# Entry
Amino acid sequence: MAQPVKKANTAKKTAKAATAQKAAPSNLTQMKAPEKKASPEEVARLAHRFWAERGRQHGKHEEDWFRAEQELRGKAS
# Structure
């Protein structure tokens, strides 16, 4: 006598496998793009622009430099 085929059991296994694949993040989604480091020339250009926009006031060049680094780093992300 032939044994009946268990289609329902196979369907459950397939559904579980599909759910597991959706729930588990792949390695590709976990990887981050390498952070592009801005060159000193790029930072200097942007910092100079910030300085000019502030009315060419002296005494805050570090703030302009750090702001330029942050903006360039943000664009790379």
The mean pLDDT is 77. The CA atoms of residues 15 and 53 lie 59 Å apart. DSSP finds four helices and no strands in the chain.
